[in-house]
Design a protein that fits this description.
The chain is of the alpha/beta class. Helices cover 44% and strands 23% of the residues. The protein has helices at 3-16, 19-26, 30-44, 60-86, 100-117, 169-175, 225-233, 243-251, 281-294, 304-323; strands spanning 49-51, 56-58, 92-98, 121-127, 141-146, 154-167, 189-192, 203-207, 210-214, 218-222, 239-242, 256-258, 264-273.
């Protein structure tokens, strides 16, 4: 027996004074309504109604049951209405997980724009450089750089991650410009220590159509991408930075891209989430919004034309220095 359904029939019959009216209100047959209440009485071991051909009235036990279940049913009905509205309105809590550097540079401005458009959504964002399990961490949406999550989530690619070797003009003026990957060994280099392993990440390059990795001796090392970027901007070291951190500085002339012929972009930034059919409207709306704002947005990576231009400019600069 479905006790919740039977209790709902009981309450409607008690309120309307008729099994027939209760059945019509609930969209079931009068026989089904009467049978549900009889099963409930059998389960409880008490009679809930005095029944006559003309009148239906509560027994004392029925009256006590009605008084006990009405508040709970009202709360249940309210909760169901709230859940139904959450599927129809862009409102309610939205929990997001994102890596620190990506969140500050690419995501946060878009989130502020989303918050302005949908003021009834309560945004709760956690910047965390570890991969987030959406279920255990109770997040609605995750954003991560790397490879797409393999299990338990749907992932949509947003942006390529280019690993760009770059330095400030002041550094190049003081220490010179490396012409090859091997010449980097003679330079001051920055390092990034991975949050999940604590190990310094190797630099990677495309050489002869293959990706090769180099362990670089770091003059300055940090586990914070923004701190590493600031060190490179300050002229302390050459760095290999993610495009989402470096591109705005390159376009503003604060950083100079180097060795772009060896640039790699094997990883991407992804937004991931559970199945859309399981998501309330506010989550689906945010996913669509962030995809529209970030997917293949060249604000956060160097275009093919820019890479060609930077390679040509670097070659001309080396020729001038050689002639001098």
């Amino acid at each position: 027996m479905n006790e919740v359904r039977a209790i709902s029939v009981f309450v409607r019959a008690a309120t309307l004074g008729s099994f027939r009216r209760a059945a019509a209100d609930l969209g079931i047959s009068p026989q089904a309504a009467s049978h549900a209440v009889m099963q409930l009485e059998k389960s409880l071991g008490v009679r809930l109604f005095h029944r006559t051909t003309r009148k239906l009235s509560l027994t004392e036990e029925g009256q006590r049951l009605l008084q006990g279940v009405e508040p709970a049913l009202a709360m249940l009905s309210s909760a169901i209405d709230d859940a139904r509205r959450s599927g129809e309105e862009v409102a309610g809590p939205l929990r997001i997980s994102a890596p620190t550097a990506l969140g500050r540079t690419a995501l946060w401005p878009s989130i502020l724009e989303f918050a302005a458009l949908y003021p009834d959504v309560q945004i709760d964002i956690r910047f965390d450089d570890h991969f987030t399990d959406l279920v255990s961490d109770r997040a609605d949406v995750g954003l991560r750089g790397g490879s797409p999550p393999s299990e338990g989530a749907i992932a949509r690619r947003l942006l390529p991650i280019q690993l760009i070797v770059c330095a400030s003009p002041a550094y190049l003026e003081r220490y010179g410009t490396p012409k090859t990957v091997d010449e980097l060994d003679a330079h001051r280099c920055s390092g990034y220590r991975r949050a999940n392993t604590g190990k310094q990440a190797p630099w990677e390059f495309m050489v002869g159509g293959e990706i090769v990795y180099r362990e670089m001796a770091a003059s300055v090392c940090s586990n914070d991408i923004d701190a590493e970027t600031e060190a490179v901007l300050a002229g302390v070291a050459i760095g290999q930075l993610g495009s989402f951190s470096a591109v705005s500085h390159i376009r503003a002339g604060r950083l100079v891209p180097l060795l772009t012929q060896h640039l790699t972009q094997r990883e991407s930034i992804y937004v991931y989430y559970r199945r859309r059919t399981e998501q309330p409207l506010r989550v689906r709306t945010f996913i669509d919004f962030i995809v529209a704002r970030l997917a293949d947005n060249s604000q956060f990576f160097l275009t093919a034309e820019e890479l060609v231009t930077s390679t040509s400019r670097s070659g001309r600069a080396r020729s001038r220095r050689s002639a001098a």
